[in-house]
Amino acid sequence: MNVLGYIRRRMMLFVLVLFGLSIITFTMVHLMPVDPVIMWGGEKASPELIARVRAEYGLDKPLDIQYISYIKNIFKGNLGVSITTHHPVAEDIAMFFPATLELVLVAWLIILLIGLPLGILSAVKAGGKLDNIGRTFALGGISTPLFWLGMLLQILLFKQLNLLPLQGRISDMVALLNPIKHITGLDLLDCIISGNWIAFRSALEHIIMPAITLSVTGMAMVTRMTRSCMLEILNKDYMIMAKTYGLPKWKIYFKYGLKNALVPIITIASMAICGNLMGSILVESVFDWPGIGLYATRTILQADFAPIMAVVLIMGVIYVSINLLVDILYSVIDKRIAYGEEQR
Amino acid sequence: MGMVYEIREKSNEKTSEHPKTKNTVLRQLWKNKLSFFGLVVIVIWFLIAIFAPLIAPYPEDAIASSHIENRLKSLSTEHWFGTDDLGRDVFSRVIMGSRLTLSVGVLAIFITMCIGIPLGAIAGYFGGKLDELVMRITDVFLAFPYLILAMVIAVILKPGLYSAMLAISLTWWPYYTRLVRGQALSLRKQPFVLAAKMMGLSNSRIILRHILPNCIGPIIVNASLDLGLIILATASLGFIGVGAQPPTAEWGLMISEGRQFFMVAPWMGIFPGIAIFLTVLGFNLLGDGLRDILDPQLRPR
Amino acid sequence: MDTMEQLLNVENLKTYFKLMDSTVMAVDGVSFLINRGEALGVAGETGSGKTVTVNSIMRNLPLNAYVTADAITLEGIDLLSLSEKQLHSVWGKKIAMIFQNPTSFINPLFTIEEQMTDVICFHEKVKNKQAVKTAREMLVLVGMPDPDVVLKSYPFQLSAGMIQRIMIALSLSCNPSLLIADEPTTALDVTIQAQILKLLGDIKAHTGGLILITHNLAIIKDICDRVVIMYAGKIVEWGDVHQVMYLPMHPYTKGLLDAIPRLNNQDKRLRYIPGNIPSAIDPPSGCRFSPRCMVAVPICFEQEPPMCEKVPGHFVACYVIRKERGI
Questions:
Q1: d(CA B13, CA B11)
Q2: Which residue range forms the structural domain that includes residue A194?
Q3: Which of A280, B73, C27, C76 has the fewest CB atoms within 10 Å, measured from its CB?
């Protein structure tokens, strides 16, 4: 079985999709209802000025040449300039991205640590009380609008009980008095590394509500999917075989069942993190969490389009990369996949 | 692309055994209490939407009106859900908003299916290069998180409720294309399709009369589950501000407006959210029940 | 009275499944026994209860199944009274089972070596190295070419026939007292079928006893010493294989044997038994076979015929035969 060959083929597909991604983003940029030159020039700019600026930025060249320079720019790290922040978009994104990453990862951990065991337990004890309660909650979880849930948590935990802060990533006082030494960009991690416990506590307080909000829908989906996948696997013939040959229960579940379940679990986990990435757009809005989602939504409402196009591109690339990683992992666990590709 | 193991809790590309008649479906739904409850909830919402102007005490509040003197009043007998920052009756706006939510949801899924299903059928049936092309395009669309793609499209189309609807349709069709393509791909090798070809039936005839009817089961299951997701997506776009624009009484927009006043008038944002929750829950329950009936091999026993 | 050592004794086994609004009587009072060194064939149509019978002995049934019996003993151990933990030590060690569809009964993500050594290590309490040696020996025993290559392979790289051999090897690796083969060749090509059957016949010497389940009477003749004919959850005839196959007494057995297509058959048409097997939820009163029986008499429809020994070692449950023999 040529696992490496499979990886090679898969990488080619990856590049192809990235190419398709860039075409779509490029098309969307050009479909934007606002002419960037007029935005730049303002309403008073004379036609000659407009024409000159256009020529200078190569905006009067045919589309395919524009596309090539678009791609070249991306590789150079030039994603445009934001009209609202007056900074290069690339810089803004570098600043905002760690916050999104932290939020997405924390929510992801919550989802996996609670959702996976719950789903497995639900499947093993199918039909039991735990199962029914879990399924009810899961159903409720996927029906709840993220942004509404966030607001509800704010009303409950901030307004009524005054337990947690309303928004932001860290309280201003703490940022002033105990600034975090930025190493990874993930505040919680940085605080632990540098031993800054006051800031850690503040960062933790601030991340709880957004992370919980983000994780609810994901947890619901993960529990449901894990449960149905586990059920399917537990009823497979080869599991019956393992049982009839007398292998002890723990071995059947943890060695055989787990490896077989690993493939769908990887899929579920990757879907959870992609879902988190998408949900973060909404959650960051509710909690004023300074991530790329907030960046994109705030700027788009000001008719500043370069940021959102960059965010779209980045999210697309992340999605596709996660898919690639997942596929490579599959081919290592389940050799049939690499084998199957060769057969074609 | 890539995601070899599709876990969207859908069928394994098997043909449904025999078409279930409407009566058997309804009867089986009745047996499953939860999904029947979902059906009831949805029917109630549709009735509310149809009779909204009669149910809402102040239907004009849903359009353009303002009663500043009455603003931010709490729950009372005249205003069951209180009033918002412009003095409008929240209850009426929620009721009237159901019309928007449901019509946009249904329209969106309809458009989605109109784009996605034919594409999928053609791709799966004809196979070869055409199939490759369609699948690559689908893969690329699916490579984006649908919400952000919809945001951009909504902005391109000029923000508004119907732009949002169109935007969502334009991001959602790939799921149906993939679904139908899978079915068509496995069906086109079946003997009855070959027999139809031998009889000289045209390709479009075969697709319409033989291939598509076999896909109806999974399509219906997905549609009812997707309606819930589409409603959530529409509300999300409204919340962000690229969907419905003020003064429309769209639930997502209402929550966004309510957010600004959550300290003094939490009811502004809470009730529209409850409405969204109940509607989506109804569709999810119904969809789950339908899936148990029409895709029994996936029933979690 | 048997002087040979009794291996498996089943008395009055009844298994039924509780459905939402009805109960399926899959097995309704089945008794038989196997002696050490014997091969018992269990024949019958689909739905006759053959698989459920062995699964009841194995206690490998879904949750809505209820098993009652006067006795199910294997080498003196009462299988009914065992707890789940105790069952696990019996399964694989004392009883091993081979299933119909070999490819789905083997785990696709693990190599043959891993799966075999897991079972061997657990039951024989040996170290991995020793287990690999045993596995290899077993593969050689079942006639597997290139056993070392096979051990390192994954199931999808092997053919169905090879996997069935592996299953047989796996079953033998712990020296079980009883080997149950449930339609082991039904999913295989005819040529492979012959090989596997020959293998099973050879293997008989290595196990204490063999139960071979099939709907194909022809293969029972080659391997089995005794045969049990089941119909609709009951045994209608059983005894020495040559007696039953050459001098069948029950009308159903006669019908089954007649239905085997023969090359020298003068008739142009295939012989068959008209009708269908009865409902397991609502079986007919009296003899289960009576609605389809050509020679049924009134009492057949009213009372279930008891099992009686017509010829030493040959039992049948039929009123018509009783009449013929003047009992």
A1: 6
A2: 92-301
A3: C76
Cβ–Cβ of A126/B301 closer than 8 Å?
A: yes
Residues of A in contact with B139 (CB under 8 A): 17, 20
Q: Residue B226: which domain range? A: 2-9+27-60+78-294
Residue B191 to residue B184: CA distance in whole angstroms: 13
The tokens of C308 are what? 């009686």
* Domain presence at residue B17: no
Provide the domain count of chain B: 1
Please check whether residue A211 is in contact with residue A276, taking contact to mean a CB–CB distance below 8 angstroms.
Answer: no
A164 and A263 both lie in a single domain? yes
Instruction: Compute CA A254 distance to the chain's CA centroid, rounded to the nearest angstrom.
Output: 29
Chain A, nearest residue to B141 by Cα: A21
In sequence order, the 6+-apart residues with CB closer than 8 A to the CB of B228 are A142, A143, B279, B280, B281, B282, B283, B284, B287
Q: Which of A231, A241, A332 to mutate to test the interface with C (most CBs of C within 10 A)?
A: A241
The three-class DSSP label of residue C281 is coil
Q: Residue-wise pLDDT tens for chain A (344 aa)?
A: 567 888 888 888 888 888 888 888 888 877 777 666 666 666 666 777 767 766 766 666 777 777 888 888 888 877 777 777 888 888 888 889 999 999 999 999 999 999 888 888 888 777 777 778 888 888 889 999 999 999 999 888 888 887 787 777 877 777 777 777 777 778 888 888 888 788 888 888 888 999 999 999 899 989 888 888 888 888 888 888 888 887 887 777 778 887 888 888 888 899 899 999 999 999 999 998 999 999 998 888 877 778 888 888 889 889 889 988 888 888 888 877 766 654 44
Return the residue of B nearest to A159 by Cα: B263
CB contact under 8 A, B2 and A324: yes
Considering the domain boundaries, does residue A333 fall inside one?
Answer: no
